[in-house]
Structure prediction request, 248 residues.
Amino acid sequence: MTQTIVIKVGGNAITELDAHFFKQLRQWREAGKQILIVHGGGPLITEWSKKLHLSVKKINGIRVTDQAVLAVTKAVLLGLIQPQLLSKLSTNHLLAVGLNASDQQLLVGETLNQSLYGEVGKITQVNLPLLQQLLQKQIVVLAPLAQTKTGDWLNVNADLAAAEIASQLNATKLVLMTDVPGVMTKGQVMSHLNWPKAQQLLGKQIIKTGMAPKIKAAFQALNKGVAQALITDDLAHAGTTLTTVATD
Prediction:
């Protein structure tokens, strides 16, 4: 059975991707593994929103998105971040294709809570035949945007998007890359984190707002059948492995 690895790369992390990252991707591809990358773009979306004097607000780690912010989000993700990432993959001799939600109804979604978040959604349906066909031949690069069945665009949290896509692909591994080496407590990286412990840390707000969506996304994927979930800043680092079973 072909193994599929879904990697979420944050907006900050894209500029920090090193030779090892691309070497690992090559090794996985040479071993016959399929790779899908979901890319964020938060810092650049914030930067451009401020330049255009638009509201910059997050609730529970989710960007509040009106129509103007949505337009900026689409422009940044599809016009700046995705081409930059595809260029880096090409420079490192990795065959890749960039896609978005409107490609053959690739990512269908519905609003999360319109009164609270605005044009923010969650992915409800993935065009699996298209993705699976493309993944056989190349790395697939996706922006975390969805379209409703009536064609309206939705901003989707990149961690949650990666988790849902990984779940629907029955991925063997979900890697959520961020700008810290893993889930931190008392200045140390936790090598493993189970859900009861995660709930405890979230409840005490030891885990900060930015990490909370990543942890929730990882456990969502595990509960839907993804075999392994990892939070790290580098594919060479062990990071934090998340597990649904209790560990000491």
